[in-house]
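REQUEST FORM: STRUCTURE PREDICTION
Request ID: SP-0412
Submitted by: Lab K.M.
Chain count: 1
Length (residues): 111
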Amino acid sequence: MKRRSLDPETPVESAELSLCEALLSLKGAEEMDAFLRDLCTPAELEVLVDRWRVVPYLLDGVAYREIHERTAVSITTIGRVARFLTQGNGGYLAAAARASRRRANAKKVRA
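STATUS: Completed
RESULT:
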């Protein structure tokens, strides 16, 4: 992670909180997609997508090799995501649980 040698005007913690608040303020997937495409380079966005793509497979207990074969995401990235699923801050698990509930509710509405 990049750290600047000079003290920025806005402390990192405050800037991170501001980013979190900006993300929370967006309404719907379309706004989030537009924001992420403005915020991230294509390579950065690809990395985020790759990490998120492997989460369901890891939660289902799929082997790393099989995840790699299904997604073309590197074993290293898969291992990194797995580590954060078990030892991280709970963000992947919270997002995965909410996404799962959203999909279940959408299926109920369609039925």
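NOTES: The helical segments are 12-25, 28-39, 42-59, 64-71, 75-87, 91-110.
Reviewed by: T.R.
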